[in-house]
């Protein structure tokens, strides 16, 4: 499939627009992340490695200008393209915050090739998406019988990753603390193949959760993740006999994480045309 996909964060409180953009980008072999809640942009960027942001201006909870201000205040360098149906009304204010016409994509979207040209220009490199992505994924994920558990105390991050996996026909269950996840694993001992576990969890930390589950389910494949204290978290994994090299650090490189889950599911014989 060539180079791994470019990850795009779409921020728009119009769910129809989100569906339109996500559908297009996924079929063109981009990896879209979408949220209708602009207030979680910062934590989304902390959790996922994003190459570019598509940002709507007029949103109820937080407008695009406020999001831009917050990004700049936090010294976020991720490129931003504005998507708006009100460019002429907003032109002067956009110029005041350093947004030029070439950084704006006008709604309604009539020509997606222009959006991709704007992305290429903003990234200062050519992203060459391929139409083969859709057919390839349809074949790989057609008979997906993989159950994935996500354990993270940030609900929004669970929801974003769960949606991305469900689009690929994974069965996904989410928990926000270690005890709830452990209770689930004790009852559901054999049907879960993969668990993505944050190391800093309420009630039971990630390394202890892994240790306890491994006592009665040695087949489950764990992906431990951490946003901070990486050396300390690796030591905790070693203390319970788990390979510390398996630790994935936030922000995730999303295509790499998806590929890692796919490989694990294939190894479990629950994914692919031969499953």
Describe the structure.
With 275 residues, the protein is of the alpha/beta class. Helix 8 (178-187) packs parallel to helix 9 (206-216). Helix content is 43%, strand content 17%. The protein is elongated and about 60 Å long. The protein is built from eleven helices and ten strands. The strands form two sheets. The protein has a five-stranded parallel β-sheet, sandwiched between helices. It folds into two domains: 7-132, Rossmann fold, CATH 3.40.50; 141-267, 3-Layer(aba) Sandwich (Rossmann fold), CATH 3.40.50.2300.
Q: What low-confidence regions span 5 or more consecutive residues with pLDDT below 50?
A: none
Tell me the helix content: 40-55%
N- to C-terminal distance: 22 Å
Q: Supply the number of helical segments.
A: 11
Q: What is the CATH domain class of the largest domain?
A: Alpha Beta
- General shape: elongated
Report the portion of residues in β strands. 15-25%
Largest sheet: 5 strands, parallel
What is the architecture of the largest domain at the second tier of CATH? 3-Layer(aba) Sandwich
CATH topology of the largest domain: Rossmann fold
What structural class results from the helix and strand content? alpha/beta
The gyration radius over C-alpha positions equals 20 Å
Query: Using DSSP, what is the number of strands?
Result: 10
Number of domains: 2
Q: CATH homologous superfamily of the largest domain - what is it?
A: Response regulator
Strand order of the biggest β-sheet: 2-1-3-4-5
The arrangement of helices and strands along the chain is EHEHEHEHEHHEHEHEHEHEH
Task: Return the average pLDDT rounded to an integer.
Answer: 90
